[in-house]
Amino acid sequence: MSDGTIQDAMAAAGLRPAKDLHIPGTGKLIRYRVEGDKGGSVNGWAVLHEMGTASFGSFGSWKTGATHTWRSGFDRTRAPTAQEQADLKIRMDLLEKARREELAKVRAQARDKAAKLWGRAKPATNAHPYLMRKQVNAYGLRSLGDALLIPLRDTSGTLHSLQFIYPDGGKKFLTGGMTQGCYVAIGRPREALLIAEGYATAATLHQASGLPVAACFSANNMEPVARALRAKFPELRLVLCADDDRQTQGNPGLTAARAAARAVHGVVAVPVFEGGGPCLS
C-alpha cells in the first residue's frame, strides 16, 4: 500500500503538476504539464481507478519514458477474495489499455512532428561546431537553425523521432518519440555491423574501420537495437562497441554491450587506453 495521495506520489517522483490537477477515479487517462516543463507542453500523464475505499493508478512522463504505479486503501490484514482479485485484474487491464492507447497517440504525434521537422531541415555540413569538435563527418544528418538533427529509425526505415545536438554539445530528443529499438545507420551492412551508443562514437568507428555502424543513442537501447538488427540480418556478424564507463559504478556501457552480445551471439569490442588516449581493441 502506498501512503498519501497519488498527487503526493507524483511529486515525490519529480512529476508534480504545474498547477492544481483533478484526476478522475474513472480510469480515464489525463495529460498534464509537469512542473518545470515549458508552457503548453503536456508531457505528464496519470490514470486513476477508485474501488470503494481503495484506489490504484499509474502516472509517468512521455518526455522521460518514466512509469510509476500507486495504490492506497487496500486492506493488508486479510487476503483478497476471488471476486476482489477478479475485479482488480479487470480494472488493472483497463488502466493498462488506456495507457497503451494514449501512448500510441503520443508516438503517432511524434512521428508526424519528426517528419515535418526533418522535411524543413537542410543537409548538415561537417562545419557544425559539434562535428568539428568531435572530428567526425555528417553522415545523413540534417540541420535546423543551429541544431543537428539525427534521425531515429527502426529496421523498416520508419522515422520515429529525432535527436537534437547543439553547438555546445547539449542533446535532447523529440518528446514522445519512440527510441527503443531505433538507431541511426552509417554505411551499408556487409559482413560485419558495429553497434555503438552515441553518434560521434559511431562516426569515429566508421571513419577508422570503414565498417557500417548503427548508433543506438544509449546503453539501455543497445540490446533492443541489437535484437532488431539480428532479426533483420540473421547471418551478419554483430560487434557491440562498448562505452567503457569505468568511472561509473557497474560500468553500464560495458555491461550493456556484454548483455546485448549474449542476446544476439555477437562479440564485444572495448576501448583500450594507451598513452592517455583510447584505442579500440
TrEMBL record:
CDD domains hit by this protein: TOPRIM_primases
Toprim domain: residues covered: 191-269
Pfam families: Toprim_3
Transmembrane segments: none
The name this protein goes by in its record: Toprim domain-containing protein
Organism in which the protein naturally occurs: Malikia granosa
Lineage: Bacteria, Pseudomonadati, Pseudomonadota, Betaproteobacteria, Burkholderiales
